[in-house]
Design brief:
The complex is a heterodimer of chains A (365) and B (520).
Chain A lengths: L1 E6 L5 H25 L4 H14 L4 H23 L7 H18 L6 H30 L3 H21 L33 H19 L1 H11 L1 H6 L4 H28 L10 H11 L4 H24 L6 H16 L1 H4 E6 L13
Helix pairs in contact in A: 1-2, 1-13, 2-12, 3-7, 3-8, 3-10, 3-11, 3-12, 4-5, 4-6, 4-10, 4-11, 5-6, 5-10, 7-8, 7-12, 11-12, 11-13, 12-13
Chain B lengths: L8 E10 L2 E11 L4 E5 L6 H8 L7 E6 L2 E3 L4 H7 L1 E4 L11 H8 L6 H15 L14 H13 L5 E5 L7 H16 L3 E6 L2 H7 L2 E6 L2 E6 L6 H9 L17 E10 L9 E9 L3 E5 L6 H9 L9 E3 L2 E2 L5 H7 L1 E4 L14 H9 L6 E2 L2 E2 L1 H14 L16 H13 L5 E5 L7 H16 L3 E5 L3 H7 L2 E6 L2 E2 L3 E2 L5 H9 L7 H11 L3
Parallel strand pairs in B: 3-8, 3-9, 6-7, 7-8, 13-20, 13-21, 16-19, 19-20
Antiparallel strand pairs in B: 1-2, 1-4, 4-5, 9-10, 11-12, 11-14, 14-15, 17-18, 21-22, 21-23
The chains are: A mainly alpha (365), B alpha/beta (520).
């Protein structure tokens, strides 16, 4: 007996949905075994990481707060990924977006009313993210520089920009010499949650954008052009879709989304920008995008799951005393499993007897 | 031939299956020593699978391969070559930037010194009276010369059986005649040849015996010298041949699609520049462009479809210069095109037929409003194409990649034709398509022209062009010959234009200089 991979005539829709679910479940099972072997209470670690944030209402705000930026960024990334344009530098665009919004806040009079300040900062955040993504777009369309490299490397440049600004020109004069900006004024901020609910304002934006991207991806000519460029570049050219324009538009959209997530996070959760601002959402959103199968609704659900692992990782740290890296390990395991299980969408596993004669059994004539 | 000598190759009950298809079903075949044996069948009949098993690329599921009377198991191509089986593939595997001799050395199992190899090389050239300069760089050679490299490579092993897979599809008529002489000489020296083709007149001219495959099974064996091509064709397709109904008296309207001194630089290093192409296709006319592969056919199609922009007045549609317009703008004005490559160019394999209908039909067929695609309209258009062109598919939701070549080509042609284009440009409309689908596509092209469209057909299949076209011109090295009226021009004349001065003997010196100037 041996196992053979056999190409499916058509990709399996069942597997397309089943493999992400299986990846999450398998991550939990693997995690339990690993932590048990490391001397922790494995099942409890899994329970605290994956279940507590869902069953404990006081954790819901945390989950939705973490989910909002993940979903917003991953929606943008998914569009580019469909065109096989890999923006893995959303973390940098997230940082630059927040800095651009903060710059606008510091430049405007403190007394500017909220209905001016808030939209101005959000627009600046989007433009900041776009501008950072424009560099890889230009490099790719002009000089054929791989966007995988350029977007990733620009993350580190963005970090240096952040360090420079909050330690130098934008340093808070009343900040006891901590590297951080002054706090945004009341009219420049958004509340942590919409009053009377557990819903952060960013999560409302995430829901709205999920719907927008759903229509864009599945119904619009633009979404169709992006899918075509990704699936068959020659066919896209023949169908009248321009590859360079797709590089630009997908990078602008994913950069803009990352910038939007950045400024929303700064305005509603932190109220300023400090050294701890880059928290890895831009990288985790890559996992969200693939776990959600690049589909806006899938991305929405995957964003919630990854947010659960963030919050649950902290719960498990205090309850089971697992290390800080726990959430990251689970997230990485999930990404490996989802990428590995992709093969089941296009291939089926089949048990065959060793003799080649058996290969004909069951194949329709 | 000695009576009682075992056949060179005998297949007994050989079968091979792939998921969803039985490619070969209990095939029996017998090739005598020194015989030129044709393997005849449509695309998808199982010819390639069969020879891949003989050459050790695939393993049979069932059955026995007997070589020179001894049952054998051929586990890989190297084992096949050790037995004395050589193969020349339809698609060559040559390094363009290397010389002829370097390419041959790379393809040999044995390690020979440069001098021994050169001596062997000249021995083969002399024995079969082939002409080939060992120092030329491959990219400067014509297709016929490149094929000769592959043949020499096979002959260096002193093969006892040579398999030729569709060898003439890229050759001019004159090159075909040269190839046949070589093969006859080879057979006279005792080497058996298994000759794969679907071109009947070649088989009549060359082969001693023909085994006909259909749907993976042997449906007959014939003596091509006695059989007539028509009866073999009907055995091959399993039905009677349909004649194309073409109105005898045809008159043409005003020019619809023209090019005027259309010139474009090479798109890539090994692409072809277009040089002053001028042509005119009138309403109701079918204009054929003949030529050997790689002479600018794809570049011409891209320039007409809009994938490559050119000077505004170099492409003229309905009297208007459209050279600067995009693909989409040209389609809206009524210029539709079908490129040569079905998978990944004319259609996206992993998309449904509905999405493939949207790929080119979305604007002309009015699927789009406010930037959104009306999937209902796209689906019903895809269904209309499927119905009108009898495409075998499970429905508009079927993935394009799940269709057979012929059915996908019918869908693509139907998708363009039902858009009622003012001008249609098609490249290789029946490449790799079974005879039934080819006849349907030819009829659809004739009918479209009869309704007043201008049709430009670019093809390497001269028979196809002579059947379809009213006017024919030859493209060679990116330049187009003067148009000629079909019926007044001979195949020999067209063949000479196709050959032209192909290949560039001076190119090697120049390339060598460049390589030395810019060491890689």
């Amino acid at each position: 007996m041996r196992i053979r991979l056999e190409k499916r005539l058509t990709p399996s829709r069942f597997m397309l949905v089943a493999t992400p679910v299986a990846s999450v479940l398998l991550t939990m099972a693997l995690g339990a075994v690993i932590f048990e072997l490391l001397g922790f209470d494995g099942p409890d670690a899994i329970y605290q990481t994956f279940i507590t944030p869902i069953v404990a209402p006081y954790k819901w705000v945390d989950v939705l707060t973490k989910a909002a930026p993940l979903i917003i960024i991953a929606l943008g990334l998914s569009l580019g990924n469909q065109a096989k344009i890999w923006n893995i530098g959303a973390e940098g665009q997230y940082v630059i977006g927040a800095l651009a919004g903060a710059g606008v806040a510091f430049a405007m009079p403190q007394a500017a009313p909220g209905f001016v300040a808030v939209p101005a900062m959000i627009v600046a955040g989007i433009i900041g993210g776009m501008a950072w993504a424009a560099i890889p777009a230009l490099l790719k369309t002009r000089f054929r520089v791989s966007e995988v490299l350029s977007t990733l490397m620009l993350v580190y440049v963005a970090m240096q920009v952040l360090n420079y600004l909050i330690g130098g020109p934008w340093k808070d004069p009343n900040g006891h010499n901590f590297p951080q900006t002054p706090p945004f004024s009341a009219t420049q901020s958004l509340p942590n949650v919409i009053p009377g609910t557990v819903v952060p304002p960013g999560f409302v934006v995430a829901i709205a954008l999920t719907l927008v991207f759903w229509v864009l991806a599945s119904r619009s000519v633009y979404g169709f052009s992006v899918r075509t460029v990704g699936a068959a570049p020659s066919a896209a050219r023949y169908g009248g879709f321009d590859a360079a324009r797709t590089v630009w538009s997908t990078l602008m959209i994913s950069g803009g989304m990352a910038g939007l997530a950045g400024i929303l996070e700064a305005m509603s959760q932190l109220g300023q920008i400090n050294l701890g601002f880059p928290s890895g959402y831009g990288f985790t959103a890559i996992i969200v995008s693939f776990l959600g199968r690049l589909h806006p609704v899938g991305v929405f659900l995957a964003g919630l799951i990854l947010a659960v692992t963030y919050v649950g990782g902290q719960v498990a740290q205090t309850a089971v005393h697992v290390p800080e890296a726990t959430a990251g390990i689970f997230q990485a395991t999930m990404l490996f499993l989802i990428l590995a299980s992709d093969i089941l969408v296009r291939y089926r596993l089949r048990l065959v007897r060793a003799a080649p004669r058996a290969a004909t059994a069951g194949a329709p004539a | 031939m000695k009576v009682g000598a075992p056949p060179r190759l005998e297949l007994v009950g050989v079968s091979k299956s792939f998921p969803g298809v039985r490619a070969n079903d209990s095939v029996n075949l017998r090739v005598k020593p020194g015989e030129i044996h044709a393997l005849l069948g449509e695309n998808g009949a199982g010819k390639s699978t069969l020879v891949k098993m003989i050459y050790g690329i695939l393993a049979p599921d069932e059955g026995q391969i007997v070589f020179d009377g001894a049952p054998t198991r051929i586990s890989n191509p190297r084992a096949a070559r050790r037995l004395g089986i050589g193969m020349v593939f339809q698609h060559f595997s040559l390094f363009e930037a290397m010389t002829v001799l370097e390419n041959i050395a790379l393809g040999l199992d044995a390690r020979l010194s440069q001098r021994d190899l050169l001596a062997e090389f000249h021995r083969v050239l002399d024995a079969y009276r082939l002409k080939l300069d060992p120092r030329r760089i491959v990219s400067t050679l014509s297709v016929g010369e490149r094929q000769r490299i592959e043949i020499v490579r096979a002959l260096l092993l002193n093969p006892r059986l040579l398999i030729m897979d569709e060898p003439t599809s890229v050759l001019t008529p004159q090159e075909v005649e040269q190839l046949f002489e070589t093969l006859r000489r080879l057979a006279a020296s005792g080497c058996s040849i298994l000759y794969i083709s679907h071109k009947l007149h070649e088989i009549v001219a060359l082969c001693d015996t023909a085994t006909i495959l259909r749907g993976g099974k042997v449906v007959g064996t014939a003596d091509p010298k006695r059989e007539n091509p028509r009866s073999m064709a009907e055995m091959m397709i399993g039905a009677s041949l349909k004649e194309i109904a073409k109105p005898a008296e045809r008159s043409f309207g005003p020019p619809k699609l023209e090019t005027l001194d259309l010139s474009l630089p090479k798109p890539t290093e090994f692409g072809v520049a277009l040089k002053g192409v001028t042509l005119c296709v009138r309403a109701g006319e079918i204009f054929g462009v003949a030529g050997v592969a790689g002479n600018g056919q794809n570049e011409l199609l891209s320039a007409l479809s809009g994938e490559t922009p050119s000077a505004a007045e170099s492409v003229i549609l309905l009297g208007e210069g459209v050279g600067r317009l995009s693909v989409t703008e040209r389609r809206e004005l009524g210029l539709c095109a079908v490129p040569e490559e079905r998978n990944g160019h004319a259609a996206v394999g992993e998309f449904s037929l509905t999405d493939n209908a949207s790929l080119t039909g979305r604007n002309r067929m009015d699927f789009v409003s406010f930037g959104l695609i009306n999937s209902g309209k796209a689906t019903s258009y895809a269904a209309e194409v499927i119905g009108a062109f009898t495409v075998k598919a499970t429905g508009p939701g079927a993935l394009a990649g799940s269709l057979s070549g012929g059915n996908l080509q019918k869908f693509i042609m139907g998708r363009e034709i039902l858009q009622q284009p003012a001008a249609l440009v098609v490249c290789q409309p029946t490449w790799g398509v079974d005879a039934g689908a080819a006849a349907a596509i030819h009829q659809a092209i004739v009918d479209l022209a009869a309704r007043g469209s201008a049709v430009l057909v670019i093809s390497q299949d001269l028979d196809e062009l002579l059947t379809l076209s009213d006017t024919i011109a030859v493209i060679n090295l990116g330049a187009l010959s003067k148009p000629m009226t079909v019926g007044e021009v001979s195949i020999e004349e067209i063949g000479l234009l196709m050959g032209g001065v192909h290949g560039d003997p001076a190119g090697t010196a120049q390339m060598t200089e460049q390589l030395h100037a810019h060491p890689a």
